[in-house]
Amino acid sequence: MEQQINITFPDGAVREYIKGTTAVEVAKSISEGLAKKVIAADVNGKTWDATRPIEDDVNLKLLTWDDKGGKNTFWHSSAHLMAEAIESTFPGVKFWVGPPVDNGFYYDVDLGDRSIAEDDLRLLEIKMAELSKQNSPYIRRPISKKEAINYFEKKGDEYKLDLLQGLTDGEITFYAQGNFTDLCLGPHIPHTGFIKAIKLTNIAGAYWKGDERNKQLTRIYGITFPSQKQLDEYLELLEEAKKRDHRKLGKELGIFTMDDEVGPGLPLWMPNGTIIIEQLEKLAKETETDGGYKRVVTPHIAKESLYLTSGHLPYYQDSMYPPMEIEGVKYYLKAMNCPHHHKIFAAEQRSYKDMPLRLAEYGTCYRYEQSGELFGLMRVRCLHMNDAHIYCTREQFAEEFRAVNEMYIKYFKIFGIDKYIMRLSLHDPEKLGKKYVNDPELWLETEAMVRKVMTEANIPFVEVPDEGAFYGPKIDVQIYSTIGREFTLATNQVDFAQGRSFKLEFTNQNNEAETPLIIHRAPLGTHERFIGFLLEHYAGKFPAWLAPVQAKILPISDKFADYAKTVLEKLKKADIRAGIDDRNEKIGKKIRDTELMRVPYMLVIGEKEVNANKVAVRRQGKGDEGAKDVDEFVAGLREEIRDRR
Ligand SMILES: [Zn+2]
Ligand SMILES: [Zn+2]
Questions:
Q1: pLDDT tens for each residue of 281-322
Q2: What's the 194 CA to ligand 2 centre distance in angstroms?
Q3: Which residues have C-beta under 5 Å from ligand 2, the single-atom ion?
Q4: How far apart are CA 31 and CA 64, in angstroms?
Q5: Which of 425, 437, 520 is closest to 467 using CA atoms?
């Protein structure tokens, strides 16, 4: 009788299969349609070939293009396909490594005396397409070190021989497809036919092993998809994202600047950017005041001991600026606002009647990011955080957490963020006391409360085990811009550890000292990341309430300068941010320039408008809206701004 193995699926179901069965065969036993989509498998937490025989009882998850592991396998397999095309085009080429990256893959190659240009990429794409159509299987073969060395000595590839030096017998495998064999741990997709759309995107130089004393290799980047449609969509998105690049728009619209002498990762907010900051803070203050928050202000530095108490030191030390020494004491720039807020809680006697206490601050934090990691407003070293900490009793927790979530949703509506994903990160009971605060009961209780709040509010969320914070479960929020790019916003965290480490207490109804639960939340994230996101999201066309200039008056000639000034006065009196374009330019140019600055309203003034006591209104992106009475226009715009439409 054939031997049986038990396979456990992600939903907990266990089914029996014949020993040596493959993930593709398992998929087939479920449905033919699924089998066609399975490109890899997660076997006991490791990514495997979907065609590799499974010999023991395992946990199995079938991976498709939609899984990260599936995509990585797809792209890494595409790197092998590209290598095959390169080898057939440039015989004698030598290969270093070809990993998947965030969007696609690359391979580092030594072309010898030859060089490669854009045109070659197009030829390689054609060759790859030809090879993919052969549906060549990726064949895994365990091999002895001796045999492997033999193979690459014969081939004369010193790079693979170098890789082999670090490997020992029993862990070496070859993967072959078509006419190409590579030293590789895998895994790979079943066959090349899955790769239906190919784009080689870039050629760059890369020093071998990243060391500039070594030879420079040629790095060829590419991206592939299971369908042409997906590639077309990707290229379109790339084009659109380029136009909406927040660094480009930030410069054009006078939002922010960077200066080498100020330092990398330290944005300077220009007047237009500062207006946006002030509007966001106004929104936050209004919302938080409504929500019963109290505002506080705290210093930018604190003594070392504060961060030892909070646990940021030494665990978070790498992300903090080095300390400065004052009067023999070490001070750190603050990387988080929490410890300061905890001290405000501790500054007074608290009773259950003071709870919940909600402390809010647009806090300035400093984080040390590696210079290679810095990126526009997205990764910076100085950030302004829409921070608050809520100190509450266990009984109040669910209600407080619900209100925080509602605030997130309220903001999403205002900014037209239609797509967002909330991830509830949980603890792992086996790692209590190590990765997680050892309070199993409180973990289960708060996780259950968070789950209940999310479910009752009908907020779509996914649960992720073993990704909680050290001190409690958290909600990670991912938002998507109008062009569908993902941004990580901020976390909404439950904390039952810091209250204890800071010895925070309130007197409960039984006159006993009790430690509060703490919620950390920052629904608008940081000004830096959020405005970076908004620049892309709106393509710089901010709604009137956020726009640095809300209306621009464009007189057709300076004959109408006086009338333009009276209109400007009316706008200013109504608190509308407005200006006059009084340059000696043709009206067509004035309109074009104002449109480039993405000003929501243009008020054109000529003879007709002056005589009728009106303005000709042009709406950004929509065009002519006809002549309007000035007061009527002002009233309409005021309403639009008030409602943050
Ligand atoms: Zn490989
Ligand atoms: Zn905090």
A1: 999 999 999 999 999 999 999 999 999 999 888 888 899 999
A2: 46
A3: 338, 520
A4: 14
A5: 425
